[in-house]
Amino acid sequence: MFDIKNYTEAYTLPEALEALRADEDAIVVCGGTDVLIRMREGKDAGKSLVSVRNIPELQGVRRLKNGDIEIGAAQTFRRLTADPVIRKYIPMLGEAVDTVGGPQTRAAGTIGGNICNGATSADSAATLLTLNAQVILAGEGGTRAVPIGEFYTGPGSTVRERTEVCTGFRIKRSDYDGFAGHYTKYGKRSAMEIATLGCAVRVKLSADKASFKEVRLAYAVAAPTPVRCPKAEAVLKNRRIDDDAAAQQFALTALTEVNPRSSWRASREFRMQLIRELALRTLKEAVEKARV
Amino acid sequence: MGAVGKSVKRVDAVAKVTGQAQYTADLEPRDILHGKVVHSTIANGIVKRIDISKAMQVPGVVKILTCLDRDLPQYLFPTAGHPWSVETAHQDICDRLILNRRVRFYGDDIAAVIAENEVAAAQAARLIEVEYRQFKPIVTVEAAMKKGATPLHKEVRPDNVIVHSHMTMGGADFRYEQARRTAAKEYGSEELTEISGTYETPRISHCHIELATSFAYVDQNGKITVTTSTQIPHIVRKCVAMSLGLPEGKVRIIKPYIGGGFGNKQDVLYEPLNALMSLSVGGRAVRLEISREETIVSTRTRHAMTGHLRALVKKDGTLLARSAEIYANNGAYASHGHAVCANAGAVFKDLYADRMGVEEDCYTVYTSSPTAGAMRAYGIPQSVWFAECLTDDIARAIGMDPCEFRLKNCMKEGFRDPGNGITFHSYGLKKCIEAGRKAIDWDRKKKEYDRPQTGPVRRGIGMAIFCYKTGVYPISLEAASARMVLNQDGSMQLFMGATEIGQGADTVFTQMAAETTGISFDKIYIGTVQDTDTAPLDFGAYASRQTYVSGMAVKACAEQFKQKILDYAAYMLEHASTDMARTVYAEEIASARRTAVRSLKLGKTEKITPAMLDIRESRIVLKKNGRQLFDLAVLGDTSFYSLDREQHITAEVTHHCKQNTFSSGATFAEVEVDLALSRVKVTRIINVHDSGRLINPQLAEAQVHGGVAMSLGYGLSEELLVDEKTGRTLNGNLLDFKIPTAMDVPEIEVKFIELEDPTGPYGNKSLGEPPAITPAPAIRNAILNATGVAMTKAPMTPQRLFEAFQSAGLV
User: Would you give the DSSP letter of residue A26?
Assistant: First the structure.
């Protein structure tokens, strides 16, 4: 039994927004894999829940005429991994969310919740950063699109207002077309795990596949929020893919753009080691995928 | 016949697979009240004031008990799952009340809410306001033993040391320092090498699937009745009675199916509180389900131990002497504490045949942290971590193959512990080492991995050995009971006092009963529910004892039972033409008699005696040649309803066991170490066990699988962390406390060296706990082989490996 003050199952966006406005204790729930845990722990006990899982606009994955891709916030991890559009155009995102928890969590948890939860460890976050995804937020005043790089404001906090609903994510064609990528999740075990560190690399190679046209690098748990590393990315621009010194420079530069903390989970020093090593290994994997 | 030694299907397989098997939570009566424990949010102090006024206003709240209640029972009681001792010197420590005003760890039980539903109980618990007088938390052994440290139990142990045991091998007066001097004189110091080091094991949680769950009510006889998930129903009865100041007859404990315990439930947990909660609301049923987070912090844990070790060895590989100073962090309450660390010391000294001797000092210390109690293998994973890390470090120091070193120095055939007399009756240790050595291709691989390695991934091979007692005799009482009742159809009801907790005890007892009585396995019905009002006495599931000790009770009872059946069978055959002639079985018995007389060539005056008969596959047969005479169903029906000689055939035996024996074994592991990511992959793991004759090979192998997974856990990832400043447990949940998942456990290879143990009822000896002992140190030694880095602290997490590799210049 959960200590829930009131529960609203919204079927339209206006219904959800109204329910959030009407009750100061109301919060959004979708898959419930984070919200219900917080309620059980007593942290969000007594809150009202507004479920957005049955709102049509939040469902599915669409590829628009101009090639941009829209992902509904209520898309579960499992469906995202299996989605034909994702598999064809951004398989890395499907692979990344397939590392979340276990099968049950992936069947219930959603990408919208993963991002709106504000955790630096979110498995979809680093990949969405390398995709320059925009977070679509619907509120009383209408809809706004926030670049994911500006979405996070600190550990567990984002620009989303309590009364706003994240409806989905938009990824421009130019941000995925021609790229290949890889996400490495480093955890203490092989499943049922939160990342000790996550590393996402996307690469776009030259026509002869011998050099990098563009590289994108982002991390989970390398800073209080998921973080992109533009300086490291710049190092590899137009460098040959077999240039080991450049790759080393790429990894070392990444270290200047992160700020991991020491905690009982892992020390800053160890995380720095992982940040460097995973940059190299993930880059290699991404290049291999790009060369196929 | 021949049911023992076969992989028969578990007797509860269908019930468990279909969900028909009922566990504690499945049995709750209607209109039950819900309990919730309120835990302290400081680690060390005194509750000054508790304000329940806001909590009482929550709709649905029925009653709130607090540690300040004037009528709270004030009987100090023990919780360890040991048979109560009638000898004062051996009694468990009585050091807690049902709710404690003197708070001794962060998570201590200070109040309890009873409400109409779970949400009301949780809301009320959050609204209770507590004011404390706080003392500094003393979380570590060092802090607790420091002069002037606050005593956690002033009356019981003013210096926080629960027990200090000094133990030796090589004479009671053996002293390591003396041995050093003697050895230097005798062999010359250039012939000697000394190794010293400090090794540590973590505090961990048992992580049984079924939580600590119970419900209590007053039954129609006025007994306070607790249905509970426990390994020790009969001991719980005694301790609940003690805690409430009630006579034992007024307490009834019921144990249904259990979803695992691993030693946590070899302790009295929340049964006394649950009983008090029911009594406080007039005997209404109250349920108390302890959440996973509460189970981790506020029930029991495995002792974290630190061992300061020294070893003296000759350069030819002769182990001369060792010393150990072991400190066990026992947490807030004594529980099993005094026994666990002493047990660790016992095996440390027994495992090797030091030429001169061993000296040990074992300290068990109260600290203001979660209580440590029993956990699978009871101190031995700790002491074998110590012994087996040390052994590889010795072998490395003198440049000897660690497998050869073990074969040369390990405990010998016929070993008898001079302290307690426990003897290695069937010795398979060296056979285990040889079998594992061959299976993993030790000699070739060791040579290969000993060559200098380069690159980011290093490979290595390692091993570790253990020995383990079977039950607790003569340290504690060993007794067990069995009761057998014949049904009309010749089938048997089997009642055991022993506890099935998932390990397969009911199945192997049924196999044993079939083996000895001759009644078919599928015609024996065992009752799994233990109700102390009706179940015969047994002390429960612990110490890998039940197959051995309770097995002895089954065997003794089965022999009596069988004799009664054979006596009756002989009566039937002898009265074939008289009493039996008037019954529906007249023809069958007359024919059986003719068969017997002919087959045994009996003269006219010769009688058919019970000694001529036997039972096989539920039939009365001739012992001499197995000729079938008649079905047991005929005997059952006759004995129940005979107008000439009615007899309800039953037997009941309580067996007082005064035997013990060692089992042993070894783990061989092969690893790949990814230096840069500081990660270990176990590519092969082989456990070889010397556990006597196996009763059910498939169940035995399953025991090993579970044990290996547990050992991998404490070796690589499991560790309960307590903040030294606040005493709060940092990772008291299953996300942050890292038990391995199915994806983290490699393929486990299992081998058995089956030697008949002369003391075991069926040639068997301990197996339940042993598999959980050696995998962790074997992996540690494989990492040492792969990287040259000698880890000292378990678990060997990526963080610890990273730090060690960094110091070694590997990353």
Answer: E
CB contact under 8 A, A189 and B743: yes
Round the average pLDDT of chain B to a whole number and report it. 97
C-alpha dist (Å) from residue B571 to A31, B286, B609, B778: 73, 54, 8, 61
* Backbone phi and psi for residue B580, each to the nearest 5 degrees, phi listed first: -70, -25
CB distance A190–B797 less than 8 Å? no
ipTM (interface pTM): 0.96
How many residues belong to chain A? Answer: 292
Q: Does A277 touch chain B (CB under 8 A)?
A: yes
CATH number belonging to the domain at B31-135+212-289, selected among 3.40.50.970, 3.30.230.70, 2.40.240.50, 3.90.1170.50: 3.90.1170.50
Q: Could you tell me if residue B297 is left (phi over 0), alpha (psi between -120 and 50 degrees) or otherwise beta?
A: alpha
Residue A42 contacts B where some CB pair is shorter than 8 Å: yes
The number of C-alpha atoms within 13 Å of B22 and in the hemisphere containing its C-beta is 13
User: pLDDT at position B221, please?
Assistant: 97
Q: How close A183 gets to chain B, by Cα (Å)?
A: 16
Closest-CA residue of A relative to B712 is: A189
pLDDT at B680: 98
To the nearest whole Å, the CA of A146 is away from the closest chain B CA by 31
Cα–Cα distance for residue pair B551/B507, rounded to 1 Å: 12
Q: Using CA atoms, how far apart are residues B457 and B451, in angstroms rounded to an integer?
A: 14
In the prediction, which pLDDT does B48 show? 98
Residue numbers in A near B744 (CB within 8 A): 189-191
Instruction: Read off the pLDDT of residues A93-116 as tens digits, 9 standing for 90 and up.
Output: 999 999 999 999 999 999 999 999
Angle at CA B416, nearest 5°, toward B411 and B418? 110
Q: Which two tokens stand for residue A53?
A: 């899982």
Residue of A nearest to B294 (CA): A41
Using CB atoms, which residue from B126, B721, B741 is nearest to A190? B741
Quickly state the pLDDT bin for A1 (edges 50, 70, 90): confident
Which of B725, B746, B803, B715 shows the shortest CA–CA distance to B302? B715
- The span from the CA of B383 to the CA of B305, in Å, is 9
- Class of residue B127 by CB neighbours under 10 A (exposed 0-12, middle 13-18, buried 19+): middle
Query: Which residue type occupies B564?
Result: K
The CATH class, in words, for B165-203+301-473+659-807 is: alpha beta
A150-175: average pLDDT: 97
pTM of the model: 0.97
- The answer to whether the Cβ–Cβ distance between A189 and B118 falls below 8 Å is no
Q: Which of A272, A254, A277 is nearest to A262 (CA)?
A: A272
Tell me the domain boundaries of chain B. Answer: 31-135+212-289, 165-203+301-473+659-807, 479-656
Q: Are B239 and B78 in contact (CB under 8 A)?
A: yes
B730–A contact, CB cutoff 8 A: yes
Q: Say whether residue A98 is in contact with chain B using an 8 A CB cutoff.
A: no
Determine the pLDDT at residue B89: 87
Contact A1 B117 (CB under 8 A): yes
pLDDT of residue A292: 87
- Which residues of chain B are under the pLDDT cut of 50? none
Does the beta carbon of A263 lie under 8 angstroms from any beta carbon of chain B?
Answer: no
Cα–Cα dist B456/B681, whole Å: 13
CATH numeric code, B479-656:
3.30.365.10
A-chain CB neighbours of B676 within 8 Å are 273, 277
A245 φ, ψ (degrees, to nearest 5): -65, -40
Per-residue pLDDT tens for A203-216? 999 999 999 999 99
Order of strands, edge to edge, in the sheet holding B679-690? B457-468, B663-674, B679-690, B748-752
Task: Tell if the CB–CB gap between B744 and A190 is shorter than 8 Å.
Answer: yes
